[in-house]
Specification:
This protein has 7 helices and 17 strands. The model has no long low-confidence stretch (mean pLDDT 93).
């Protein structure tokens, strides 16, 4: 077991967690961040165009910049997953997937969300073999090829637009009757000559031998229910990652988002939450709102620990 005692343990290395770590480290709190993906799901964004001061930056670069900033102000970063947390007297004991154990005075959950899946047969077996949840990561494997994007929100239209720059043809398959989300991304998707929108349609089967070769649609498109594709990108939303908060009996709302107050405090003393997994920021899941919540949480934690220290003297 690591014998050090941290002031703040942050579970999650996305914008909320890294923002909180920058503030808490600058408050001279001994801070550690756990997370296998620096930058979190923002790394999957082809381009972030609305983060103040950085008009056009890839999600991957933005995540790396945040991590570098965090480290430079003194945060300790561990690319590990937290599998359990238990209260241990005045501290929280954090268990990682490599059997590590760490102690911290407080915990901040910045666990973000998990991507939704199609929930059809062979989905998992084709992962990395023609099926992907990250267009940013895998787009270059489909240069001059035919791909499909599932979904009709901003994430889907952004992915389709990005893919249209490298792929020969892009099919957007959406169960709705019109694209939704950010109008700018929707407009770009509609105006690209190699993007084809298939409305009110679902993928009901994935077909291929060693890798994905075609998909079966819920209704015919161009007189066929089958569409030959080299790859499929799933962009159908996400759910809050609350496995650990649930274990601690932290209050969540009817949609399983962590309930927090204006200071990002949860229903359990000593535990905060920030970012997409919370009920704050009007559920507006943006980098700017995540980093804002992270900053508020760090300030609240600093005041909490300072008050405890004063009262113990």
């Amino acid at each position: 077991m690591n014998k050090e005692i941290y002031d703040v343990a942050i579970v999650g290395s996305g914008p909320a967690g890294l923002s909180a770590s920058i503030y808490s480290s600058r408050y001279k709190l001994k801070t550690i961040v756990f997370g296998k993906l620096p930058g979190g799901t923002i790394t999957e964004a082809h381009m972030v165009c609305n983060y103040p001061g950085l008009e056009d930056v890839s999600g991957l670069e933005l995540g790396q910049r945040m991590l570098t900033h965090s480290k430079n102000v003194g945060t300790e970063y561990l690319p590990k997953s937290v599998v359990n947390i238990k209260r241990d007297g005045d501290f929280f004991k954090i268990f990682t997937d490599d059997n590590g154990e760490y102690l911290s005075k407080v915990v901040l959950f910045a666990t973000g969300t998990d991507r939704n899946k199609l929930a059809i047969p062979k989905e998992d077996s084709f992962l990395g073999k023609g099926l992907s949840y990250c267009a940013t990561c895998d787009s270059m494997f489909y240069k001059n090829k035919i791909v499909a994007v599932v979904g009709g929100s901003s994430a889907a239209t952004m992915a389709a637009t990005m893919l249209s720059d490298v792929a020969k043809e892009v099919y957007v398959i959406y169960r709705g009757s019109e694209l939704r989300g950010d109008p700018t991304w929707a407009e770009q998707a509609l105006n690209r000559s190699n993007i084809h929108i298939i409305y009110q349609t679902l993928i009901i089967d994935l077909i291929g031998e060693l890798r994905l070769e075609k998909i079966k649609l819920s209704k015919p498109y161009n007189d066929s229910k089958y569409l030959d594709v080299d790859g499929v990108f799933i962009e159908i939303g996400s759910e809050p990652n609350i496995t650990l908060p649930i274990k601690l009996d932290i209050q969540v709302d009817e949609h399983n988002y962590i309930v927090v107050d204006k200071e990002q405090r949860t229903s359990i003393e000593g535990i905060w939450a920030a970012g997409d997994c919370t009920t704050n920021s009007n559920f507006f899941k943006q980098v700017v709102t995540a980093v804002g919540e992270g900053a508020v949480a760090a300030n609240s934690i600093y005041l909490y620990l300072s008050n405890k220290k004063t009262n113990s003297i």
